[in-house]
Structures are given as structure tokens and as C-alpha cells.
Amino acid sequence: MNYPAAELTGYQPLTAKKETQQAAGNLPQEIKNDPNFFGPNNPRRFTHHYVIFGHQQSATSTSSGCGEVDGNDFIVTLGHWNYRCNGGFNNGGVCADNADCPGGGNCQGLGDIDLDGDDDHDDVGSDRQQSGTLMHELGHNLNLRHGGEVDTNYKPNYLSIMSYRYQFRGISPSGRLDYSGDDLPDLDENNNLDEPDGIQDGTDDTIYDCLGTERTGVGIGAIDWNCNNDGGIQDNVTADINDDGAFNVLTGFDDWENLKYDFQNAASFQDGVHADLDIPDMEFKTYILVINKPPVADAGSDQTIDCTCSGGDSVTLDGSGSYDPDSDPLTYTWTGIFGTLTGVIVQPVLPPGVHTIILTVEDDRGGSASDSIIVTVNEDTEPPDISFNAQPTIIPPDAPISFTATATDNCDTAPSPSVEITGYDCYFYTKKGKRINKRGSCVVSIANETVTILDSGGVDTTIEWYGRATDSCGNVAEETFATLVDNPGNH
Question: Under DSSP, is residue 285 helix (H, G, I), strand (E, B) or coil?
Fold first, then answer.
């Protein structure tokens, strides 16, 4: 068919009809028969897709829209979205009706949803929700389903706005609204997921189900499908990664290569309702669950604790770097050799060794995330070093004279290790090398770490004393010190 370009470009606004026609329920029929819109002689009818932005599909429906698969028309119905509980036990929580607000709360609209400064009186969704739904429903017209060529939803290897994962948030991490551009490799959930392979995509991220909670994985790189926080190193993993209660082969699909533009021969092109060809889309309660962004866990950097005694040491674990993208309140659970502790900051006692500690944060809508750190606790086994300010020789007139022992330690700086003098001895050697005890003529006084020579005992006497130092971990060092009583004539 050939039509003048002028007849296929531009648009015609849907102007309101008379109030009497609206009251009588004739407005849709008037629009349908108007040659400017859907009339049989309008060439746009054979080339254009038609969309109606309505409020609700029924008085109780919260479906975001409905579109013909391989067709030419669809509707967007975001009325009654973005409601919150006013009062009751779930005050401030998302809701679809008063049943979600127990305790006497009312489910009502928020006002300015899209933050443009104007009150959104009918609560018809934000700009992002409207644009995402428009493209999603148009995708149905172009012969796309929620899994590409199949209805299977939430597939991690199907990065498309047709998946409920991305209808509103867009493709991670940029958030773009897009159909899939790659037929990614299949993912077999039944004992055949290879974590190191991931989804083998390019720059995009993927979102997958992790034991009932959403997680984000990189497009190129390993993905921890079974959520055991091992870094994604396992093969032949079984996991329900699209949360449909079954273990299936999830196929990839390239939307752009398979869009169907020619709808004139499709059954849905004919007038009337095509219930078997229409796909009602996401309910608001489903959106509440899907749109909840899981928290981000941050257990902090790895730590090394030195100079710990055998009984261990207190370690500060700080999870304050964790956050929730939705600003939901979080609970913090730390798991390690100490068992389980709760709180943003905890201070368990860890014995010497290398410890892996896991922080799990959970929001109040079922979202959770984990992070781990390694804490290395090094035991202090080194004894202190003892030194004495003793002279190697003294002469008899130098008595009395005092010497003091001191100690240093690689761990104990303040206070320093304790030091004491445990005993002394006096002796000299004959020319034949025989040792003679001179304790009777040598007089020495000991006070803690100080030794005072009161009487040297004469020339050639060796005065010897013994020092001991102990650090805070009980490591002991013992040293012997000596000075020789020399002949004054040698000086």
C-alpha cells in the first residue's frame, strides 16, 4: 500500500466529546469511529500503533497495562499506583488497598510522585513508570513476551524491558530503557549452572533471585548463583534464579533481531477484544515486590590485629558503610567464630588466627545482602629485651654505686614490661682458674630493678646479678649482667 507521507506523520489529539456522550458511555465508540483516529479510511490504521493512557482497567485492577501480542494497540493504566498507608501498623508502607494497611490505616495517594512540583492528583505513576510501561506494552505489539519468545519472566540472561525486572528501573547499571540486543547463552537451573561463566554479557549487569531476594551480578564475570558467598567458583549448581518455583532451562533472546513490525495479517489487527492475545501486565502488588531494591552490605576492610595475647583480643566490626537504595530500615547480623551478634557495630573477642566474618543486612521487605571480611589476629610470642646501664669495670673507690635494669618490647610501649633483679653473686678466679665465692666480703643491695654495690669485695672480684623482664602477655626474658672490680693502677 502507498500512502502520502503527510497522512502517515504527525498525530491527532484525542479531544474530549460532549459530557452527555461521556456520561452515556459513548466516548470510546465516538473515538473509534472518528476518521481522524481509528476510522476504516485512515491510512494510519495500517501502519501505526495506538495506545490509550487510562486510569484503571477496572475499579479494582492495579495492572500497569495490557497489550496485544503481535498487534497494533495497547493501554497503559497506572492509576491508583504509588499509594502508601496512612496510619495503621504499616504506616508509610506501600499498598494497593486498605487490606495492606492493617490496624485502621488507609491506602491513599502520595501527591507529587514525579517531583515536578505539581500534585499528581490521580496518582498515575511517575514519568519513569509511564515511559517504561509504554515501551513494555509496545513490545507486546511487536510480538515480544516477558521472556522474549516465551512467557517465562525474570530471566537473568534476558536483559530487556519486557522482563518485569526492568520495566521500571531499566537495564542496570545505567538504567536505560531498552529491548535486548543479544541472545545470551542458556542457563540450566537444574544442576548445570556454572558460576564462573556468569551470563557472558558485555557492560550490563543482571538481576537474579537469591533465595527469595534480588541480587545484582556483573555481566562479564562470575556470579554466585547459589548465594553461598564463595565468589562464584562452583560448577553444576542448582538454583531457582528467576524465582518461579521450578528448575528450568532459561533461554536468552535477541529482541531487536526478532521484532515483528507487520501486524496487518495478525488476528489481533481485527476490531474487537482478543482475550487470548492480550497480556495484562504487572499488578501493583507485584511491583511492590519486584521494585524493592536489596540493600548493599559493607563489612569494612580486612583487618590485622597484632600483639594479641593467647586469650585473644577485642576487634571492632563496623557495618555502617551498608545502605539500602530504598532507605528501608536495616538489621545487621554478624556471623563468625564467636557465633552471632547483631548491631551496626559489634566488638567480639577473637583468638589468634585468621577469621572470616560475614555481615548480613536485611531490609523490612525481604531484601538482604552479605559481605565478608578477613580478620587476622597475630599472637605476641616475643619476649622483651633487657638492658642494664652497668659499667664493664669498677674500681674500689667507686663503691657504693647503683645500676638499673630496663626493658623494651615490640608490643608493650606504655606501660613498658615489668623488670626485677632476682639475685646476685660475687666471686673471683685464682691463677689456676679456680672459682672462689666472695659473698662474705661483697655487699650488694637489691631494690626492684636496681642493684647497688655497697662493698665491691676487692680487686679482681666479679659481681654478677640476674634480671628478669615480663611483658603483658606473660612472655619472659632473663639476662645475666656482670662488672669486674679492677685494679686502680690500671686506670
Answer: helix
